[in-house]
Design goal:
The complex is a heterodimer of chains A (232) and B (271).
Chain A: E1 2-4, H1 9-14, E2 22-24, E3 27-36, E4 39-49, E5 54-59, H2 65-72, E6 79-85, E7 88-89, H3 93-102, E8 103-106, H4 119-125, H5 129-139, H6 154-170, E9 175-179, H7 187-198, E10 203-207, H8 211-215, E11 219-224, E12 227-230
Parallel strand pairs in A: 5-10, 5-11, 8-9, 9-10
Antiparallel strand pairs in A: 1-2, 3-4, 3-6, 6-7, 11-12
Chain B: H1 4-8, H2 11-37, H3 42-60, H4 64-78, H5 88-111, H6 115-123, H7 131-150, H8 152-160, H9 162-166, H10 172-194, H11 204-213, H12 217-241, H13 246-263
Helix pairs in contact in B: 2-7, 2-10, 2-11, 2-12, 3-4, 3-5, 3-6, 3-10, 4-10, 7-10, 11-12, 11-13, 12-13
Classes of the chains: A alpha/beta (232), B mainly alpha (271).
Amino acid sequence: MEYADVRSPHVRARTGATTPAVIAAALRLSAVRCRHGRLIAVDGVDLTLAPGEHLAITGTNGSGKSTLLRAVLGLHRETTGVIEVAGRQARGTADWRRRRAEVAWIPQRQGAGRFPLLVKELLDSGGHLDEAIAAAERLGVAGLLDRTLGTLSGGQLQRAYLARALGQVAAGAELVLADEPTAALDFAGQEQVAEVLAGLAAAVVVVTHDRVVAAACGRVAEMAAGRLREVR
Amino acid sequence: MNSLGVLLDLPSVRLALLALVLGSVALPIVGVFIVGLDIMPVRFAMMHVALLGIAIGLLTGLDPLLCALVLCAVTGGSLTPLARSGTGLSGAMGLLMTLAIAAALLVLSISGVNANGAFELLWGSILATRPGDVVALGLLAVLVPLLYGLRRRDLGLLLHDRELALCSGVAVERLTLILLVVIAVAIASAIRLTGALLVDALTLLPALAARRVGRSLPSMIRWSVLFGLAFNVGGFLLALLFDLPPGPTLVLVGGACTLLLHSIPERGLTR
């Protein structure tokens, strides 16, 4: 499926497109199936997301939401079916590296990790430090740059990961995958993050149990027993 | 009490001291990698693999320690696919050490060599350090800090979280392969100095002490090298002064200092 390229000229220039044209879907899934050993976690999911479109995926714990996002990034190995980002499938190591570079990711498990990492290093890992620091300022975590992730509260950690993702979007990433990005936030934080996500020009897939975040998305789908059903 | 001046004039003592100083540059950094990858059993596994290498050397007539070094490097590299899962490497070490020791005993039996002879090579002795050992440690003292210097960002991300590293464009498989080979070779080299049972003195103890005071990868690397130098050179000089066996003295000095650091309350440490 192709869409008119309505991206701003500087984004088009950054991706190599110089004239308005048609572009591929931001994300296309066809018959995607993910297994955890014998267990089928994602069962034949089809989905097409236009550039700039926002989709919230809701559903009970263990219904396969996070596995689906991880499959898009190649983090879940037992996956079959077609997964295209911006019209491209990832087949080899180089393709996956490109895929991971062009998708901004906010993981669910933002653990402190095995080893100390500074907030500044986390923001830099997205590849666009200046943009990420600017986003961190907007999210109120710019004062934590020299703190290690292990010393942050859950909410601060989520804001830091969001700032990293926003830095990637500002630098040209056109798909954001966010896995429960408001789970550790207070009400004000949830509203702020929902507002920030809603304002993104990039396509967004957000797994959430948060009604505010879901309401801010143009499309909502529910996942149950590995199957995805569009509800709005 | 012995006179240090007289002892330091002995060529074997000077060579041992040089080996320890060179080892204190590279091996504590390797210890930081081991702690970061959460593969502390790797030293036991590599000890067993080294024994297999020695057995193969004795069977074929090649240099047993060179065989141990090469086999450790190959084994380290071949473990890379197991690093994909969080517990893969750690769990694989148990399997590896069992298989390696069984194969070593089989090879020793076939070669007709007395197993005690092979085991003796594993105990190591700092004062029996050969120029070849110093060269190997010198190479590691250049290569390991160079690897850290060139791949600092990638190493920090990989040691923190493999998936974050993957999603940050780090060539995780290749870097893990390099790290495992470096770790295996470094452990095989360190075995010669202190013996397999005491190899922790050179690798893990400085890294564990550094983890207590360092709050980022660069600071942990700096602290680990400082602690490595202090523990190893300090322990060695104490051993010379009081005519004690160097290997156990190094470990006890390093272990006591590490324990002391970990007993200081968090707020007492200036980070």
